[in-house]
Automatic annotation (TrEMBL):
Species in which this protein is naturally found: Cyclopterus lumpus (Lumpsucker)
PROSITE patterns (alphabetical): PHOSPHOFRUCTOKINASE
Alphabetically ordered keywords of this record: Allosteric enzyme, ATP-binding, Cytoplasm, Glycolysis, Kinase, Magnesium, Metal-binding, Nucleotide-binding, Transferase
SUPFAM superfamilies in the record: Phosphofructokinase
Pathway(s): Carbohydrate degradation; glycolysis; D-glyceraldehyde 3-phosphate and glycerone phosphate from D-glucose: step 3/4
GO BP term (any one): canonical glycolysis
Name of the protein in question: Phosphofructokinase, platelet
MF GO annotations: 6-phosphofructokinase activity; AMP binding; ATP binding; fructose-6-phosphate binding; identical protein binding; metal ion binding; monosaccharide binding
Short name of one Pfam family: PFK
Gene Ontology cellular component annotations, sorted alphabetically: 6-phosphofructokinase complex; membrane
Keyword hit for Glycosyltransferase: no
């Protein structure tokens, strides 16, 4: 929430508005006094890495009554506040909408009581409201992710990963969405959620499953069962962790422990994703308030795919309440439909090969695991190829069959491209009767798929469905806004920046110069800088000269002469061949004499390692599953005369996140969008975030609002039959 507060304050000041903090939520609005204070630029410094909210939050019984809302209205009118940005759940946002609907009546009542004059009533006649959803539950309809959910998933996965290393058998925690996604992210054996009560006999089925998994893997000493708060069976009987523990002990004799996370999920440092999400939402909220009119309904700023949108607040609230109503009435299929949770179908059998190409990226294992298991579920025989395209053409037993119960591990990677070995690759496809290819990797994987698809006219064996899933920390693949691995790298950068700044506690003013990876792509530096609160970020895509460097140093020097104690400068490794990290470090050191001192840090390959973030695990799982479903569909369409044959360009695709949705795009059509020399797309969406980063760093710059969200209506989920 702090990142959202920071963005609203600084964007508000940027547009020359007077911004106020209301401490302790609606209670502070009702009580007034020192609870409502004007915010300054410096008052939101050094808060990005702090969990929770520095302005406090409290439930307010008084605000639920008209008398309380009358007091709140009086306190706002006294300060001339006519725009409210509310960060909370559906209860807080519903209360804000009611407050707005009553506003004219409240002003009239205040006027009659003599608490305000006619001029105050006239100048404050309209109240505009914009909401941002802050909730770890992610249970608000209209947005893909709420502020706080990703950070909560980080806490859960950290705990589950730690428990798994102790080789015990833990059981669940609370929260529906968190239960489902963390089960995907950690590879849980069983998950219980309220929307999908298990069928009668689930106790025997679960115990049999746990026993089979343990017997199949003598080295597997633990099982993970996750239980969401409110989980029930088909007879409305509660399913609790303790009940499951007793069941497992009684039926299987396994040593079983219960771990209930509780408020651990709410604490800790916010993730990079949450910081960027909240910063984008905060700026969007201010723009929405500036554009609001008397006829504009109260809206909520949401995230759909990778795009910020504005939706009517009460439409979202109504749809959220419909889910709860379906749950209360035990209409579980309706609740699942509204939640957009769907299953898989078993199809006919084909041979599908999976290979990793290029440098490793966190989350690849999740993608491979999902691809293999979804493929087997749909009836395919799944093959893994070691050493990427190099292993493919060498044919030194690189293929091995993967079963559902196999332990999925990262296959060896290689950067070798297939272009010079197409004949041998075609031969291996024929030998192993491979009917489809799933390639998971970075820029080499993309170029490799281009070479394979271009050679279809020469080798008929290559006329099979091919799809690529982008996985690279650099996030430099054309056709996709996001790549598997980039979120983990961003978290590594953000965590390191937090620690580096903390290392200077107790010292005088200090500026840190930090070099990030990414090749010629400035994604990690720019978005990492936004998440970490950088003052300046140097990238290849935005050329800079010595005059820019001088202006940046002078700007930072002026900031450091105030109460600001820490400065942060990020530089992409290939941003400029002459203005190196050492050069920039020496420049800032020299020009900052007497005001601040400098330190430098080159992050290197630490951005590429570590445990995958929950986002990368979840994204890798979803995108790989969707890729296999596409392969199944395409195989059925191209199976004729007893063989698979297809050479149309739309059967050699890249599956990427584009704005709002996952989209399959022919790689041949992406060729013109690619700068092959620098290995980056010609157009990159995140460049539009750079002005936002500069505004939050107190630069005077223009902000392009052409891509800002427009008010839309909530899209209702249609029944599956339709």
């Amino acid at each position: 929430m702090n990142a959202a507060v920071r963005a609203v304050v600084r964007m508000g000041i940027y547009v020359e508005a007077k911004v106020y903090f209301i401490h302790e939520g609606y209670q502070g609005m009702v009580d007034g006094g020192d609870n409502i204070k004007e915010a300054t630029w410096e008052s939101v410094s050094s808060m990005l890495q702090v969990g929770g909210t520095v302005i406090g939050s409290a439930r307010c019984k008084e605000f639920r009554g008209r008398e309380g809302r009358l007091k709140a209205a009086h306190n706002l009118v006294q300060r001339g506040i006519t725009n409210l940005c509310v960060i909370g759940g559906d209860g807080s946002l519903t209360g804000a909408n009611l407050f707005r609907e009553e506003w004219s009546g409240l002003l009239e009542e205040l006027l009659q009581q003599g608490l305000i004059d006619e001029e105050a009533a006239r100048s404050n006649s309209e109240l505009h409201i914009v909401g941002m959803v802050g909730s770890i539950d992610n249970d608000f309809c209209g947005t893909d992710m709420t502020i706080g959910t990703d950070s909560a998933l980080h806490r859960i996965i950290e705990v589950v990963d730690a428990i798994m290393t102790t080789a015990q058998s833990p059981l669940g925690f609370h929260c529906l969405y968190l239960a489902l996604v963390s089960a995907l992210a950690c590879g849980a054996d069983w998950v219980f959620i309220p929307e999908m009560p298990p069928k009668d006999g689930w106790e025997d089925s679960m115990c049999q499953k746990l026993s089979e998994v343990t017997n199949a893997h003598k080295s597997k000493r633990l099982n993970i069962i996750i239980v969401a708060e409110g989980a029930i069976d088909s007879h409305n009987k509660a399913i609790t962790p303790d009940y499951i523990k007793d069941l497992v002990v009684r039926c299987l004799g396994f040593d079983t422990r219960v771990t209930i996370l509780g408020h651990v999920q709410r604490g800790g440092t916010p993730s990079a994703f949450d910081r960027v999400l909240a910063s984008r939402m905060g700026v969007e909220a201010v723009l929405a308030l500036l554009e609001a009119s008397a006829t504009t309904p109260a809206c909520v700023v949401s995230l759909v795919g990778n795009q910020a949108v504005r939706l009517p607040l009460m439409e979202c609230v109504q749809m959220t309440q419909e889910v709860q109503k379906a749950m209360d009435e035990k209409k579980f299929e309706e609740a699942v439909r509204l939640r957009e949770v769907y299953g898989l179908n078993k199809e006919s059998s084909f041979n599908v090969a999976v290979l990793n190409v290029g440098a490793p990226a966190a989350g690849m294992n999740a993608a491979v695991r999902a691809a293999v298991r979804v493929g087997i579920t749909e009836g395919h025989k799944m093959f893994a190829v070691s050493d990427g395209f190099e292993g493919f053409y060498k044919g030194e037993c690189p293929f091995y069959r993967v079963s559902y119960s196999n332990s999925i591990k990262t296959f060896l990677h290689a950067r070798t491209l297939p272009g010079k070995h197409l004949d041998k690759i075609a031969e291996q496809i024929k030998i192993h009767n491979i009917n489809a290819l799933l390639v998971i990797g970075g820029f080499e994987a993309y170029v490799g798929l281009l070479e394979l698809s271009a050679a279809r006219g020469q080798y008929s064996e290559l006329c099979v469905p091919m799809v690529m899933v982008p996985a690279t920390v650099s996030n430099n693949i054309p056709g996709s806004d996001l790549s598997i691995g980039s979120d983990t790298a961003l978290n590594a950068i953000t965590d390191t920046c937090d620690r580096i700044k903390q290392s200077a506690s107790g010292t005088k003013r200090r500026v840190f110069i930090i070099e990030t990876m990414g090749g010629y792509c400035g994604y990690l530096a720019s978005v990492g800088g936004l998440a970490a609160g950088a003052d300046t970020v140097y990238i290849y895509e935005e050329p800079f000269d010595i005059r820019d460097l001088q202006a940046n140093v002078e700007h930072l020097t002026q900031k450091m002469k105030t109460s600001i104690q820490r400065g942060l400068v990020l530089r992409n490794e290939n941003s400029n061949e002459n203005f190196t990290t050492d050069f920039i470090y020496q420049l800032y050191t020299e020009e900052g004499k007497g005001v601040f001192d400098c330190r430098k840090n080159i992050l290197g390959h630490m951005q590429q390692g570590g445990a995958p973030s929950p986002f990368d695990r979840n994204f890798g799982t979803k995108i790989a599953a969707k890729a296999i479903q596409w392969i199944t569909k395409t195989l059925k369409e191209s199976y004729k005369g007893g063989r698979v044959f297809t050479n149309s360009e739309d059967t050699a695709c890249l599956l990427g996140m584009r704005r709002r949705a996952l989209v399959f795009q022919p790689v041949s059509q992406l060729r013109d969008e690619t700068d092959f020399v620098h290995r980056i797309p010609k157009e990159q969406w995140w460049l539009k975030l750079r002005p936002l980063m500069k505004i939050l760093a107190k630069y005077k710059t223009s902000y392009d609002v052409s891509d800002s969200g427009q008010l839309e209506h909530v899209t209702r989920v249609r029944p599956r039959e339709a």
